[in-house]
């Protein structure tokens, strides 16, 4: 096996069968833990409060916030958190996927591989980044390819653990396409491992979600062979 190949022979993830609710209030193990009042504040109010708190963090660290390079940092960080890197927490940003009839009667595996994503580890709030590979068999409907990328990005843009991210993507593809035949593989680098703690810059983490036809070893092997091909 080539050094960068993905070989995942683990059993499919055993998540609950419920759909991911639009309000994201945690009711099963694969949902992001959220409080019921998570969206009582609008984005501007959140940005204002985060700005205040991050300014205090910088003050505690001893940074001079009168310096022209630092004085705008609290606001920049607050906007980045709310509008960009954690935008996937807000259900209003959930992709609305338009479906099309599978009029070609295409009955083979469809794979979108090497989807680049950036997320953040929920334990240390440092980046997780890597590639996601998503496949499905149509049950009569197909989805625009860019929407698969947007689904990956949506669930990535929140504090995450890789296992949950993998399951959330798989469950969302099932929900949107009304199919039980979904495969998801993620290869990721974790900066909480590389930039702190053990300081290992070479290791990667692989996770997988297989449902329906992808539980068949031949189908799974076909999927893995394709994503490992150049």
From TrEMBL:
Which InterPro entries does this entry report, sorted A to Z? GTP-CH-I_C/QueF, GTP-CH-I_N, GTP_CycHdrlase_I, GTP_CycHdrlase_I_CS, GTP_CycHdrlase_I_dom
Coiled coil ranges (UniProt) are none
Q: Where is the composition biased (Polar residues)?
A: 1-13
Which UniProt key words apply to this protein? GTP-binding, Hydrolase, Metal-binding, Nucleotide-binding, One-carbon metabolism, Zinc
What does the record give as its pathway? Cofactor biosynthesis; 7,8-dihydroneopterin triphosphate biosynthesis; 7,8-dihydroneopterin triphosphate from GTP: step 1/1
* Domain GTP cyclohydrolase I span(s) in chain numbering: 50-227
Q: Which GO terms describe its molecular function?
A: GTP binding; GTP cyclohydrolase I activity; zinc ion binding
The record's similarity note reads: Belongs to the GTP cyclohydrolase I family.
- Name of protein: GTP cyclohydrolase 1
Question: Source gene?
Answer: folE
């Amino acid at each position: 096996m080539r050094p960068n190949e993905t070989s995942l022979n683990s059993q499919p993830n055993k998540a609950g069968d419920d759909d991911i609710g639009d309000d994201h209030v945690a009711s099963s193990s694969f949902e992001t833990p959220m409080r019921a009042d998570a969206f009582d504040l609008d984005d501007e109010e959140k940005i204002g409060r985060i700005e205040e708190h991050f300014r205090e963090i910088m003050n505690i660290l001893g940074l001079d916030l009168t310096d022209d390079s630092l004085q705008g940092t609290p606001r920049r960080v607050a906007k980045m958190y709310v509008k960009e890197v954690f935008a996937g927490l807000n259900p209003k940003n959930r992709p609305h996927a338009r479906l099309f009839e599978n009029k070609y009667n295409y009955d083979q595996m469809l794979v979108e591989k090497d989807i680049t994503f950036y997320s953040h580890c929920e334990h240390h709030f440092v980046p997780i980044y890597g590639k996601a590979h998503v496949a499905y068999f149509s049950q009569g409907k197909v989805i625009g390819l860019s929407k698969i990328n947007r689904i990956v990005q949506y669930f990535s843009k929140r504090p995450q653990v890789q296992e949950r991210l993998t399951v959330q993507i798989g469950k969302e593809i099932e929900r949107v396409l009304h199919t039980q035949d979904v495969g998801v593989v993620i290869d990721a680098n974790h900066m909480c491992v590389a930039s702190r703690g053990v300081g290992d810059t070479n290791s990667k983490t692989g996770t997988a979600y297989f449902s329906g036809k992808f539980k068949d070893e031949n189908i799974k092997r076909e999927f893995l062979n394709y994503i490992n091909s150049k």
